[in-house]
Amino acid sequence: MTKETNKANEDSEISYSLALEELQEILAELESDQIDIDELAKKVERANELLQQCQKRLTSTQMQVEKIIDVLNED
Amino acid sequence: MSPDYEIPSFSVLQLGNFLKDGLNNLFPQDFWIEGQISNFRIVPKSGHAYFDLIDPISEQGSQPMGKFSVALWNSQRSEIDRTLQNKSELILANDINVKILAHLDFWPPGGRLQLIMRDVDPQFTFGHLAQEKEKLLQNLKTEGLTERNKLHIISKPALNIALITSIGSAAYADFCDELLNSNFSFNVLARDTRMQGEGSASDIEEGLKIVTSYQPDVIAIIRGGGSTSDLLSFDSESLARAIANSSIPIFTGIGHEIDQSVADVVAHTSYKTPTACAVGLVETVNEFIEKILAIKTAVINLSHNKISLAQSHHSNLYSRTVTIAKTSLFNSNENLKGVKERISVIVPNIIKRNGDKLHGFEDQIRALDPKRLLARGWSITRTQNGEIISSTNNLFKGDEIETIFEDGTVKSTINEVVI
Question: Which pLDDT does position A3 carry in this prediction?
């Protein structure tokens, strides 16, 4: 139980580049023809989770950047 | 004891006249004689001038190796002075080497052997002075003394001035007026000094020594114009060496129209008049002010340049940062989109591929279903144990077998095995 929680935390704190790396690995697996159907749903679900994380990170970064640019322009 | 010859006997006057006549016979005409003037004096009442003509190679201060008293009558003196003035700007004065036309005379009343001066050779006198000056300048130059005082760098505005001149002279007044008019706060320490005549060169040297102890920024030696003889002190070797070796920069303002004195040549800076010397000092201060203003302007300009450079660098960095950040965000977004698209294409493909595989299996299985073969007339024969019989091997007469058809099973006994 504790372990699971830790993993969830780790996942939520995974860096953008690590998330992207994992996505590439999943893509490679999916494209390799070796994918086990039993694993497919899990993999796709994981990919979706990572994509959402990345998207969220990207959106928040974009907002932060826009905000900084606005401050700089005011100066 | 009586002498072999009669000893002559004279009265003083007789001997004097005898000597005078004898000299007249020996030197019946005037002759030229060269020598150096010493102990020159004019008797105010009569206007007659008297001096000693000494051997010029005699060392100064020591007993001359040869000496004659010279008398110059007032009647001839003014004419001789004119000749000298017109031709060489000289007047008769001590230390001058002259070539005079004279008559050797004995003056019985004074018991004095003397030369009566009639004329002077101005060319000789002037040429001799010029030659001596040239030789001195050459020596000073060889020793590097003409440049030595010039090596002093005036590293701050020269406002503390030590002045060597005759206080109260026009030169002094002109010089001080010029400094006062500049509105700079000059501080002048004046040393009253004789600027011409016998001993003036050593007086100036003494003045240099004294004012040097006050460590002024510049020492100025000034006097107004005068004849060549008046300015002879400024050609003194000893004074020239003192100026050259001075630890303080020395400016001169010695009034002269044609050539420079030796003092001018060895000085740090020389001017033709006391006024010009003061103007030069004011100019030196002005140069500092201009330099400071130029530095100020340069500092301001450089600061502005640096700031605008930094600003342009900053705005450049800013726009690059913004561009890179935006590009990076855009690329990341595109990347994610790509991943999404690929997944959305790949996953259905995988499912379809696996479905297709299953269908293939189904077809294969269906094709291999024995029921379909039995319907087409094929049958399956098995032993009683249920083993499929695919060969006559191990089959023997009397063995019981069963044959399966589409619609039922027949049990039979083998009558014969035919191979």
Answer: 41
Q: What are B189-248's pLDDT values in tens digits?
A: 999 999 887 788 899 999 999 999 999 999 999 998 777 777 888 989 999 999 999 999
Tell me if residue B395 falls in helix, strand or coil: coil
The neighbouring-strand residues paired with B381 are B403
B12-128 — its CATH code? 2.40.50.140
Which helix (H) or strand (E) segment holds residue B219: the answer is: strand B218-223
pLDDT in tens, B163-181: 999 999 999 999 999 999 9
> Which of B381, B374, B389 is CA-nearest to residue B411?
B381
Longest dimension (CA), chain B: 221
ipTM given for this complex: 0.71
Q: Which residue has the tokens 């303080």?
A: B248
What is the token pair recorded at B32? 């030229």
CA gap B261, B232 in Å, rounded: 8
pTM assigned to the model: 0.54
pLDDT in tens, A15-41: 888 988 998 898 888 888 777 878 888
- What does DSSP say about strands B160-165 and B187-192: parallel, antiparallel, or unpaired? parallel
CATH of B133-149+157-287, one of 3.40.309.10, 3.20.20.70, 3.90.650.10, 3.40.50.2300: 3.40.50.2300
Laid out side by side, the sheet with B250-254 consists of B187-192, B160-165, B218-223, B250-254, B269-271
User: What does the DSSP 8-state code read for residue B388?
Assistant: B
CB pairs under 8 A between A and B: 48
| pLDDT interval class at B136 (50, 70, 90) | very high
The long-range contacts involving B380-387, CB below 8 angstroms and separated by at least 24 positions, are B380/B404
Q: In this complex, do B329 and A30 lie within 8 Å of one another by their Cβ atoms?
A: no
Note which residues in 42-61 of chain A have CB less than 8 A from chain B: 44, 47-48, 51, 54-55, 58, 61
